[in-house]
Design goal:
Elements (H helix, E strand, L loop, with lengths): L5 E4 L3 E5 L4 E6 L6 H12 L16 E5 L6 H6 L5 H15 L13 E3 L8 E4 L2 E4 L6 E3 L1 H16 L7 H15 L8 H10 L6 H5 L1 H14 L1
Antiparallel strand pairs: 1-2, 2-3, 3-4, 5-8, 6-7
Bound molecules: adenosine-5'-triphosphate and magnesium ion.
Length: 225
């Protein structure tokens, strides 16, 4: 398999073009993508927007998937192509659609497939609509945890007073929480989300340092809405 140009790099993987139709997502550390690919295929079967995956192609740390066109929702937000309120609503609707799908393995009927990293840089705005990428954290569990995780990731930017994006992130957060409505009842999801974020080795000390303030911001925004 010939690998072409580097299309994008995240904190954990690099994404290369293979040809006009397919990309290769390669982890920078040893991690088996079998389960991630299986979950993507499962949610796709339930009509959830993810890139088609081509299992078995590439090595065990490689995921071959359909090449998407369009910017990530974060890029579109920075470029002024989408309003922060719309970003919040799109995220909330994607979370709700995902959580309507039954879990595959869990015996708890309340559990669902969770993404656990659903933020604006993991949504690509394609001509077919928003498509969710980067399923490396996926697992089954209570939907409130997934909603809390998305809110927390955005609130970390909103709570960082030195960030130029804090104000925009606040508008995204308020719209996300408003659109989530009842799903905003995270249970103990917010505490769990904070623990998980705190243990994420790809986070900077600065990002970990604003976690408490981010949780406070979510609690305040929930009371206000
Ligand atoms: N199917 C695809 N088609 C085209 N470009 C893609 C595709 N999947 C990913 N990309 C590009 O690669 C970038 C990185 O992808 P991805 O979010 O999966 O990597 P990551 O390392 O897990 O990111 P993170 O920093 O969130 O951990 C995306 O922002 C996007 O620009
Ligand atoms: Mg990503």
């Amino acid at each position: 398999m010939e690998i072409g140009e580097l299309l994008g790099s995240g904190r954990s993987a690099d994404v290369y073009a293979i040809d006009g139709d397919r990309v290769l997502r390669r982890y920078r550390f040893a991690i088996d993508v079998t389960r991630e690919a299986a979950v993507m295929a499962y949610v796709a079967d339930h009509g959830f927007p993810v890139p088609d995956v081509y299992p078995g192609e590439g090595g065990s740390t490689d995921l071959v998937m359909r090449r998407l066109s369009g910017p990530t929702m974060l890029r579109a937000l920075i470029d002024g192509e989408i309003a922060p309120e719309e970003v919040g609503r799109v995220l909330a609707r994607l979370l709700q659609r995902l959580h309507a799908i039954p879990a595959q393995d869990s015996r708890d009927p309340r559990d669902r497939v969770l993404h656990l990293d659903l933020h604006p840089d993991n949504v690509m705005l394609t001509p077919r609509g928003p498509v969710v990428i980067d399923w490396c954290n996926t697992q089954e569990g209570p939907p409130g945890l997934d909603c809390a995780m998305s809110a927390l990731i955005i609130a970390q930017v909103a709570a960082d007073e030195a960030s130029e994006s804090a104000e925009v992130a606040r508008a995204v957060l308020v719209a996300l929480l408003g659109e989530l409505g009842a799903a905003m009842d995270f249970g103990d999801g917010l505490e769990q989300a904070k623990e998980r974020r705190g243990a994420n080795p790809t986070l900077s000390a600065r990002e970990v340092g604003v976690l408490d303030a981010a949780v406070g911001l979510i609690r305040t925004a929930r009371i206000a809405s």
